[in-house]
Design a protein that fits this description.
The protein has 263 residues and is α+β, with helices and mostly antiparallel strands. It contains nine helices and eight strands. A hairpin with a 4-residue loop joins strand 4 and strand 5.
Length: 263
C-alpha cells in the first residue's frame, strides 16, 4: 500500500524538523571548483592521518597480555558469503545492464509472504529512507525510461520515474565532482532520509534510526554486489543541497544520507 508523502507531514512537529535540519547541516560541506583552492576539511598532516586510520581503540591498557591469547577470535573464511569485497578504489568502465540493477535491489524489497517487512531492520517499521537509482552518464544498457532517475517502491516491487526534467549531466557531476581518480561507476544509489516519515513517531531519535537504516541498506547492497560480481563503494563526497536541487527534491524534507557507487 502506497501512502502519500504529505500524510506524514500532518503528524510531524515543525520544531523537531527544524532542529534536526540544523543538526544535519553541521555535517554538510561544499564541494565546488570555485572554492576548492581556499577550502579544506581539516589541517591534519597526511602522515598523522595515515598513522590514525584503520586502528583499533584499546580502553584497558592494563590488561594482562596473556589474557589476550585466551580471548582470540577467528575471522571469516575468505570464501564465506558474508566476507565482503573491499570497497572499489577505481571503477573500470564496463557494460552494466538494467536487468542487473533490478537483481541488485532485491534485498531492499518487501519480503515474500509479508505485507511490509523488508530485508533490513527498521525502527517501528517506518522505513524513512528513499532510494533513488541514477544511470550515471547513460552507461547502463536497457535503461527503460527517458528519465535517468528511478525511485524505488519497495512494497510495490517496482520503480517510479522521477522528474523527467532533471538535468542529468549536472546531477552526475554533482555525485562525483572533481574525482577522476575513482574511474567510471555506472550506477549511483542515493539513500535519502524523508524527515516527516523519520521523525513523526520517534521525534529526534528517528534521525538516529534513519542513519542506522541507511547503513544496513548499503551493507546489504555491498554483499549483493559481491554475489553479482560488481564493484561497490559508499560515497560521501557530495554537497547535500546540490543533490536535492538536481533531484528536484525539497531540501527541508529530504536529506541525502549516503551515496553508493556501483560498476
Amino acid at each position: 500500500m502506497i501512502t502519500s508523502h504529505d500524510q506524514y507531514l500532518k503528524f510531524s512537529a515543525t520544531d523537531v524538523i527544524d532542529e534536526t535540519l540544523a543538526f544535519h547541516a553541521k555535517g554538510n560541506y561544499i564541494i565546488h571548483k570555485a572554492t576548492q583552492h581556499v577550502s579544506a576539511l581539516h589541517q591534519i598532516p597526511s602522515n598523522e592521518l595515515n598513522a590514525l586510520a584503520g586502528k583499533e581503540l584499546q580502553l584497558n591498557t592494563l590488561l594482562n597480555k596473556n589474557c589476550h591469547s585466551l580471548l582470540k577470535l577467528a575471522p571469516l573464511a575468505p570464501d564465506h558469503f558474508l566476507n565482503r569485497n573491499n570497497s572499489c578504489e577505481r571503477f573500470t568502465e564496463r557494460p552494466l545492464h538494467f536487468n542487473t540493477v533490478q537483481s541488485l535491489l532485491a534485498p531492499l524489497l518487501v519480503k515474500t509472504g509479508s505485507t511490509y517487512k523488508r530485508g533490513y531492520p527498521s525502527g517501528g517499521a517506518l522505513y524513512p529512507i528513499e532510494v533513488f537509482c541514477i544511470n550515471l552518464s547513460n552507461k547502463i544498457e536497457g535503461w527503460p525510461t527517458n528519465s535517468n532517475v528511478l525511485h524505488l517502491l519497495a512494497s510495490s516491487k517496482t520503480f517510479e520515474c522521477h522528474s523527467p526534467d532533471i538535468n542529468h549531466q549536472l546531477l552526475s557531476q554533482t555525485i562525483t565532482p572533481l574525482n577522476d581518480c575513482i574511474g567510471s561507476p555506472s550506477l549511483a544509489l542515493i539513500f535519502c532520509i524523508y524527515l516527516p516519515k523519520a521523525l513523526f513517531k520517534y521525534r529526534h531519535r528517528g534521525y538516529r534510526l534513519s542513519l542506522m537504516e541507511a547503513g544496513s541498506m548499503y551493507m546489504l547492497i555491498d554483499l549483493r554486489c559481491k554475489e553479482l560480481n560488481l564493484d561497490s563503494r559508499p560515497w560521501s563526497g557530495f554537497t547535500d543541497h546540490q543533490i536535492t536541487k538536481h533531484l528536484n527534491l525539497n531540501p527541508t524534507l529530504f536529506l541525502p544520507a549516503c551515496i553508493q557507487l556501483i560498476g
